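Usage

Read records sequentially. Each one opens with the input sequence:
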Amino acid sequence: MTEVTLIGEHLAKEGLEFVFGGCLSKCKSCEIKNSCCGLEKDRWYKIIGIRDKKHKCKIHHGSVQVVEVEKIPIKTAVSGRTVIEGSVVTFEKKDCKDLECDHYILCHPSGIGNKQKYNVKDVGKKIKCEKGYSLKEVELI
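and closes with the structure output:
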């Protein structure tokens, strides 16, 4: 699903991937904040189109550019034997601090919120977890 937002003109490049960190306090008084702040916080996006329109901005030096973005599927590991493609899951961070684990990055991806709901785009293989969690590799959107 394509969404429209604004990004600093120096960042407005097709193919750029970014995590939307939310709106800054300086943005609260801006007339066009709804255009910038409409994305989902802590979520990965990819710029798929650039429009000609620009606006002045208090935060970005120069201006912001209107861009088309789409959510990027996030590869992670989720618990559950019944995870199927098309289902909705609530992502829960694993109680695991073993940075040496081969699956640590997969279980603790950036750009995903704890206790947030996501659609399962794809289900991959089972993951052997040393902590005993029943995990599957998935792509969430």
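Summary fields computed downstream for this record:
- The chain has two domains: 2-71, 74-140.
- The two ends are 10 Å apart (CA to CA).
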